[in-house]
Task: structure prediction
Amino acid sequence: MTDLALIPDGGMPWLDASGPQAHLVLSTRIRLARNLAAFPFWGRNSPEEREQVVSTIVEAARQMPGLADAAVYRLDSVSVATRQWLSERQLVSRDLAAVARTSRVRTGAALLLGRSASAMINEEDHLRLQGLRSGFALDAAYTVTDRVDGELGVRLSFAFHPEFGYLTACPTNVGTGLRASVLIHLPALVLTREITKVLQGLAQVGLTYRGLFGEGSEVLGDLFQLSNQTTLGKTEAELLDHLSRMVRQVMEYEERARSVLRRDAPAALEDRVWRASAVLRHARTLSFEETVDLLSAVRLGVGTQILPDVPLYMLNRILVLAQTAHVAQSAGVNLEDEAMPEHRAAIVRRMFEEVGRK
Amino acid sequence: MNTCQACHEREAVVRLTEVVGEDVVTVHLCGKCAAERGVESDAEVVQTPLGAFLAAMGKGGAPMAAAAASGAVCESCGATLQDFRASGRVGCARCWTTFERPLKDLLRRLHGATRHTGEGYTDASARPLTENEARDRKRDALREDLRLAVEAEQFERAAELRDQLRVLDTQ
Result:
């Protein structure tokens, strides 16, 4: 099994709540999709060709200062528990990790993990560079990812078309190959039922959203990943700037909704926050969905000064550590263990107790 | 739920209107029975993320239909336009040129644009780095290393890197 302890900072520095606007924005992610010109794309390449894609990319990365000591994880040679663990840390996509019961991990699926950026290999595109930063930090996340892209682009031959730009397997990613996303917590907009309007507005200006966990657009814990929908016809700077301005606006709406809640329903708001906090501290069984739901209320309590002493970084960490593969690992059980809700509740309780003692 | 009027088993997803003599006849069919009659149902195409777009193109997209009819095959990976329609994924870099016209049409629908205006790229094998570029790359790399060394509190290494940067800057 891959030694997970070797992962720099556990792969979670983006959750430490140290970045700008951390009370609303958990993290910012930049993804650049690239393909090697010499190999067929997703769906038309053979296992042998995917192996060559891995070795070509890893060899190039070894010559780069930023990725020279990056760890390489072959997802096709580790257990489903490990793959799911990596996916829960947002280091690889659910697709690449093949965590769904019906899916099989593909030959050549790999993760290259450096300190400042990482890369998924043989996902839908040969290379998906990824930069993650704590808080609302589009420029910082883009800078690190762009740097790695530039260095790799010198050593590799990327598929690039003079008119269409960077070529990708799916036409939705062509051009810049850039997907910028901001993970934002919008509980007050959900509570005041303003969220639908906001999301519709975002769709009209070319932005899209999805949830943090699981498939598709299902949203848990009022956590929305807002990102650009189109990748072609605008420069990288324009795409980032547009997303940035829209996210700022959404943050304003959320703050306004919080003021409304505090003004019009202070008792209901406080009750919700304190109940959530009590359940997380004392429950003996917790499903993941319930945990995330309660975390949302507690997080809202931190942002509205009802619970000023609960550290955001701990709430962020629970989002990851309360997921199934993490619970299984820390409790030493397998993914299907029937007592998972008990193990999860114990972990959450312990984390609140540790913070309480400090 | 409408039941398919051909097999009377599955749910009807296609409404097929035909002119028979002077009469207009409408039948409701499931995807399978429709396919047997040569009618492609959107319901099957929509299974891929791009399905909705591709389905729309099948109806209104003359270029896509023309390329499909001409049976164009990518010289590099052997993919056809049908393959793309089925998977929603382009086969290789060459496919983007082989199926340029229909893809352009699709890009217009997806992105509202067909031309990349972002960062350019020149293939590594196409030209060597100029001296200045090479120096800039080295400087960037050293700065990143320096940042990491400071972060990791490796101050001796950081000093070494800082000296290297100084030398580079005086060149």
User: Anything to note?
Assistant: Chain A touches chain B through 48 residues (CB under 8 Å). The two ends of chain A are 35 Å apart (CA to CA). The CA atoms of residues 61 and 105 of chain A lie 23 Å apart.
